[in-house]
Request: fold
Amino acid sequence: MMHSQETKDPRALDESLKQDHLELEKTFQQAIDTFCGGDCGIIRESWLELDRKLEAHLKAEEELMLPQFAQYSPAAADRIAREHGEIRAALQQLGIDLDLHELRKEVAEEFIGMLRKHAAYEEQAFYAWAQARLAREERHAMLRRLVGVVRPAQRSAERVAARE
Reply:
């Protein structure tokens, strides 16, 4: 998700977060593709990886950036928090559908559309603010937080790919 040079340069927070969105979308698409392949063990592992990555991303934003952003733009911060809740609820429902073997590809693709719309809003309204307004130490803390979760998840993705 993030490259080592990005973790060393907290000035690159906005680009790292944008890359995180792309990686989340890619991970979700891989989970859908795995789902279409039919191996339940691989499907479950892909889904759990997606869930871990997405939750880590949302939680990091909420804990390290959103409280300060709410002081700058309360309405935008409320929208982001509300959409995070909607994303979590949709992801939970997709997981239930997956467990029940009722997940339809078109529903999963609608979820990708929801993620894309949310990502575009955050990139426009939230990430530019974070890059301009957060102190270097705060940007660095955000990058460390995301990298701490991403690397183990990346190894998991490589294990799944090797088994396919």
